[in-house]
Amino acid sequence: MRHIISLLMENEAGALSRVAGLFSARGYNIESLSVAPTEDPTLSRMTIVTSGSDAVIEQINKQLNKLVDVAALIDLSEGEHLERELMLVKVRAEGDAREELKRMADTFRGRIIDTADHTYTIELTGSCAELDSLLEKIGRELILETVRTGASGIGRGDRILKL
Amino acid sequence: MELTGAEILIRCLQEEQVEYVFGYPGGAVLFIYDALFQQDKVKHVLVRHEQAAVHAADGYARSSDRVGVALVTSGPGVTNAVTGIATAYMDSTPMVVISGQVPTGAIGEDAFQEVDAVGITRPCVKHNFLVKDVKDIAPTIKKAFYLARSGRPGPVLVDIPKDVSNHKTTFEYPASVAIRSYHPVGKGDSGQIRHAAQMLLEAKRPMIYAGGGVVLSDASAQLADLVRLLDFPCTNTLMGLGGFPASDRHFVGMLGMHGTYEANMAMQHCDVLLAVGARFDDRVIGNVEHFAEVPRRIIHIDIDPSSIAKRVKVDLPIVGDVKLVLDELLDVLRGSRQIPSVSDMSAWWKQVDEWRAAGGRMCYRNSSEIIKPQFVIEKLHEITGGEAFITTDVGQHQMWAAQYYKFDQPRHWVTSGGLGTMGFGLPAAMGVQMVNPGATVACVTGEGSIQMNIQELSTCKQFHLPIKIIALNNGYLGMVRQWQEFFHGNRYSETYMDALPDFVKLAEAYGHVGMRIEKPADVEAALKEAFARKDDLVFMDFRTDPTENVYPMVPGGKGLSQIILSEEL
Fold first, then answer.
1. Does the ipTM surpass 0.85?
2. Other beta carbons less than 10 A from residue B60's beta carbon
């Protein structure tokens, strides 16, 4: 099952590779991983999307907690949470397709942030599924490149991950 | 007054009451060695290979309650140390390894003797640090010792670039240490402990399975009290040997791949299992599915939450320091009016004793023609009164030592259980002897393993370490040969040790005493003579039966009750 794990870790050199190394050494999946410093520059917040059986997910949580640099951790998928990912997708936009692509971006509440004679670059923020769905709508033949940040997650309401 | 980073490092070690550092000098640690030279509180033991420095620090820590310290240079110094660090990590030894690094300005430039020490050791340390500022040396060393010894212990590496060790700042050793992202547990959950007590009292076929965590937590007395209070059978893992006295009638021997019949059968057929500081690894419970076929309720006490429910489903987890949890459990049990049902327990003990009697058949058959390795260990136990510190290498000799040397005290058995590192025994024995001067220390080894760190005979000479080396020399890499015999159609691929050195001459060349023992009748007298030489290292080359196998054996992938007792069966 898919899980989204959020953690706070020391913003130190090597901290990211401790997490990444743990996943590869123990054979766990990483679907995506996104990380950046928080309002407290000594802390980074990381969101990891992974999948596995309940036993594997339990081990992932425990092993992450065991890392000395990891200060706090929450499995967001265990409760109500929000999940957003940013995507930039550059598409071939010529002739009639230009109008069609514009409409498609609007439908998904995306924005065209760059236009050129033959291309558009669409920015879209949403759940991973929404991003997938736009890509599917556009179709591979029109897509020139895709950049995704990986999911960022946060708990709803009082579910707060803080030191 | 300002001190250099190197001087600060040595002052830190003094503050941590470090008596010995095991190490090997090199370019990146010149300033550190210079600072070592100019004081005499921290003594240095010069090994002949960095791997041995780490194993020696490991043996030092395991046979005492101290943190072992090793010091190596950059590049190959670090890579040579990695095997030792991984060994310590797998067996949770508290250790601080200090490595030199190329100057900060040269890092990343493929400088001479540069290796990414923090990167290369990351998967086999509890934590590691690269110190980039001389002001960080003292707080980092403070943290390193704290991390190494607290919680589930483990090795911590501190990498210090050469320029940092020569920069100056004022020295102040932090009085306390706190790491906001690290909170090792102490006491267990009281509610869970009360539940555990109830579960134990209701058990009809109970079993206590105790591992290295008991030794690391110094909880042997608590474990013995618990076992005797409840009158339950108790088994030890390889790492746990000595954590419960082998001479106690409640002890059913070691369990696992080469454990006793009674321990493995009781483990398989118990209805309530109390696991204490053990981790259900593959060499202990064999096939997980087979183990799970028999329903039993499991209580698991461990300081590391990630050890719980890793391989086996646990009904009642208790995360905490084994000693503190057992103390509380004992209080609850003593305060309870209940005792385990006498009739249930006598029926269970009857069953366990029947297994014990059946297991009796698997004793080795002694010979008057050829030396049986088990016989050597039995005599070793007898002659040392069971009081010696025993280190081992890895293979058949390690299993025979575990089976036939009956350990009554903790921290007397020093073996590489998790990583299974050949070459561990001799350097580990050096560390054991340094921290237990005057004690009897024997290294049980084989002709294969001993050659992996044989150069340490030189260190032993320099530091007058009267270790007794018991080499069970069967001319084969015996454990591999045994598996080839059982599972690979007797094709002994590369396990015959041709062109062995003359170990007697070799020992003599290093300035020690060498003995070759070829007849069973000479075993006892030779051991007596060797152990009477209190001041000498004696290398005893026992020529043993090359065809002898380690029994009992639970073949890899099989279940505990699918145990092979002996050749005949």
1. yes
2. 29
